[in-house]
């Protein structure tokens, strides 16, 4: 009984922190319509700032607590809304999602930069050493503080949204921003306020969570992700249901972990919140097709077949020539860029053409590498490297196919994290590696790095041309039609489920093959190669490069691969790497099509200009 | 061809449609008119499966399609256009129609040359000379014609047109009227929602008048025009 109570209290405390996190997410999402993936990162920065003020600079704890919660965090939230979110108003989910992912990466960068991980930082518990005994159970003040704070916040939010003018105005903005504006509410102000409140709640969760473990930038950022499942329990709208969901998750996982054997704990524990998130997302009500919800993006014009084949051939020839000039180190960098670009092609297909956001592309890449590693580099290995991720992709697609936009992104996030924790860590061994052979081809010595470089260039060129051919054929048109207007597509007899299933499967296969080639390049893979965070960065970069063209993917991958090299020339770059990414994301507010899109635009303008000149010349002649 | 029986739709506490029943016989051109907010588009959404009715049935021929998803209804011969434009903005005018013709080929197996069919249809609605343009370069009125051509590319037996004439010039609107008459002569049935009363009166054989979610009158153009209830609710205001 005592064990049961003790476990329940521990679970309750964790559940309360989840609840605070989830409430912050819900407040921001319902009011501004943007799901903040950087919510956890804000909590992390807040926790570190609190450590800095209270431990680092010796401020009294209550003062530091209030400064972080009531001044710094709301300020950060308000600034983020003004600079990053407001220009994206009405943008499709893919864009806003990447924007907050960019914020996440930026804040991670700030965390690493300001608080380098080489020192251990520990936050003392609040009221360290003070305990009370309830029913023969020792509860420390810190636990009580968490519980009391959460109750106060939950009740306070409830009253705020039902009793105050401002709270009611915030709810009005959710329902209809234009109507609320007519009634005298400024939607931007309300949205800004919701971001300030959300950031404050994230900070509260971060500061309360931090003393329960050591301060770690990545862990704190991702731990707050656990609140996602709770937020889903309330369908991202309902605060009481969110709190209830958080408490159930906290207590039940604490009990399961307390009573189950260590075997289960090691295997399942880190993945529990993700499995719950996956389940919660699956139980969401199916989103109905709606007319009048156009994606609002238009893709750059595609190049003709002859032109793309021509560019592909030139690309391979140049790669062949360049490969002879490069040092082994530079050859490795180039190969890395080429193979990453190939993996990104899977995102061009899935997200660019198909409009589906996936945060688990590297999971499929990992599966491809794993299959190749287990079956060798022969034809069978290549086949397995395509078939295993394709099968996994089809399975995932079957479960999530009715989800769109944000919920699809969250489901893929949960899948990536769960696979990371359950599969890769065990299949490849914690910190262990799996040797991945290079594909064996007739007449070609792939063991030679120079040859492998050219082979990767050929594969990338084939993939890109293949993608462009697909784009110009019936399936490509159907995909884009489905993305542009799901309602109109359905009324011409297109089955949205089947089309999405196919594209998800093909995209997984492409990512898998890319993963196998990536593994072959380095000779081995480890679980760290396929982390969720890396998948997020991949999507981020691909979007910055331009999700709608293979050129964009190539540029993004190459600059990513070249970055360490640039850093050698300009060492300071390493420090601002994440900030650069952040700036790139800010640019998304101005151009949603990325660098590739911008290039295509420029190309189109040139073409128009040339046509005009030809026209003028003809008229004159 | 189409029978709507006692359809009721609720949005929260609002009854958008209150027991609407109507019929579109084979080869008929039936009009559906009524003031803004009367529920015309909602009824279209119910018929095409984008909206689930609280009560009532939708039948195509003898088959109850109420529980079928939109794409299944389309494959049974139902096509439509949208009041709020739903073109595929990343594609060209030709590709918009081609996508529908290709879809028809994939499930209908009777569309040997989608590209040619698309061109012919665009020619027919009067957009032959802009078919290579990107669709987002066209004015709204012409986009409605793109939607008409796209709907036709699925070779529907029943076509639901949601204000195809708005944004068209007098001349274009007349051409549209002729096109509709032609289409019905080819054996199609059409249910037409249109604010251009002149057009509706000219081409429709039968007209239903929808007001506040209920059908308040049904009849030939002459009967409807003379109906005092209709004049009070709708026509009277536009005639004044």
In words, what does this structure look like?
The complex is a heterodimer of chains A (621) and B (240). Chain A is mainly α and 621 residues long. Chain A has three domains: 2-282, ABC transporter involved in vitamin B12 uptake, BtuC (Orthogonal Bundle); 305-590, Orthogonal Bundle (ABC transporter involved in vitamin B12 uptake, BtuC), CATH 1.10.3470; 595-621. Chain A contains 26 helices and four strands. In chain A, strands 1-2 form a two-stranded antiparallel ribbon. In chain A, strands 3-4 form a two-stranded antiparallel ribbon. Chain A is globular. By secondary structure, chain B is of the alpha/beta class. Chain B has helices at 40-48, 70-75, 93-108, 114-125, 140-153, 170-185, 197-203, 221-226, 228-239, and strands at residues 2-11, 14-24, 29-33, 55-60, 63-64, 78-80, 158-162, 189-193, 206-211, 214-219. A six-stranded mixed sheet of chain B has the order 6-7-8-3-9-10, sandwiched between helices. In chain B, strands 2-1-4-5 form a four-stranded antiparallel sheet, with helices on one face. In chain B, strand 4 and strand 5 form a beta hairpin. The model of chain B has no long low-confidence stretch (mean pLDDT 91).
By helix and strand content of chain A, what is the structural category?
mainly alpha
CATH class of the largest domain in chain A: Mainly Alpha
What is the strand arrangement across the widest sheet of chain A?
A: 1-2
Mind describing the biggest β-sheet of chain A? 2 strands, antiparallel
Q: Which architecture of the largest domain in chain B per CATH?
A: 3-Layer(aba) Sandwich
Strand tally of chain A is 4
Q: N-to-C terminal Cα separation of chain B, in Å? A: 36 Å
CATH domain class of the largest domain in chain B: Alpha Beta
What is the third-level CATH name, the topology of the largest domain in chain B? Rossmann fold
Number of helices of chain B: 9
